[in-house]
């Protein structure tokens, strides 16, 4: 009887026995090794990956590819709005990820940066061991005229 679990693994009944010594068990382990090998091959490698050490370069979404809903959602979060305002007051590439004075951990900050990149608001590049940030003001304004200006206006809650 053929049975595949939700994770894609073959059930023991298809291995050909209740113990791992059966011929089917060896085939199942070999199949798992093949899947693991395919996953390992999918990991980035080579000069482009190694140029930044242990991490890959961030992926950026161009504002032309962003929906209004995505842009509004990115600007609706108070922490992301705070990050955008700090970037707007600084020169391009002046702020590194660790230079923001925010009351959140690295993982949460990284998530906010990812949302801002996906919304076309943020561009990042690696400079040595640090990651520098730039507000994509001109590109975003071309896509959504006035939206960023409105979000950056003084007096709005942060």
Lay out the secondary structure.
Elements: H1 12-15, H2 23-42, H3 47-50, H4 68-76, H5 78-88, H6 106-118, E1 122-127, E2 130-135, H7 137-143, H8 147-152
Antiparallel strand pairs: 1-2
Helix pairs in contact: 4-6
Report on this model:
- By secondary structure, the chain is mostly helical.
- 47% of the residues lie in helices and 8% in strands.
- The chain is built from eight helices and two strands, in the order H-H-H-H-H-H-E-E-H-H.
- The chain has helices spanning 12-15, 23-42, 47-50, 68-76, 78-88, 106-118, 137-143, 147-152; strands spanning 122-127, 130-135.
- Strands 1-2 form a two-stranded antiparallel sheet.
- Helix 4 (68-76) runs antiparallel to helix 6 (106-118).
- The longest helix has 20 residues, at 23-42.
- The termini are far apart.
In which range does the helix fraction lie? 40-55%
- Average per-residue pLDDT, rounded, comes to 74
The radius of gyration over CA amounts to 23 Å
* Secondary structural class: mainly alpha
Strand percent estimate: 5-15%
Q: How many helices does DSSP assign?
A: 8
Number of strand segments:
2
Mind describing the biggest β-sheet? Answer: 2 strands, antiparallel
Shape, please?
globular
Walk across the major sheet and give the strand order: 1-2
Distance between the termini: 60 Å
Give the ordered list of helices and strands: HHHHHHEEHH
Which stretches of 5+ consecutive residues score pLDDT under 50?
Answer: 1-52
Write down the oligomeric state: single chain
């Amino acid at each position: 009887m053929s049975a595949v679990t939700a994770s894609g693994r073959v059930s023991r009944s298809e291995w050909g026995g209740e113990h791992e010594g059966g011929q089917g068990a060896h085939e199942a382990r070999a199949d798992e090794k093949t899947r693991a090998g395919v996953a390992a091959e999918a990991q980035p490698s080579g000069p482009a990956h190694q140029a930044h050490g242990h991490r890959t370069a961030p992926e950026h979404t161009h504002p032309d590819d962003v929906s209004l809903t995505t842009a509004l959602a990115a600007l609706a979060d108070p922490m992301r709005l705070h990050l955008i305002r700090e970037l707007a007051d600084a020169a391009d590439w002046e702020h590194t990820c660790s230079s923001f004075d925010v009351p959140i951990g690295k993982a949460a900050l990284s998530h906010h940066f990812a949302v801002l990149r996906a919304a076309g608001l943020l561009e990042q590049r690696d400079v040595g061991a640090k990651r520098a940030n730039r507000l994509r003001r001109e590109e975003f304004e071309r896509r959504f005229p006035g939206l960023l200006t409105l979000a950056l206006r003084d007096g709005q809650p942060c």
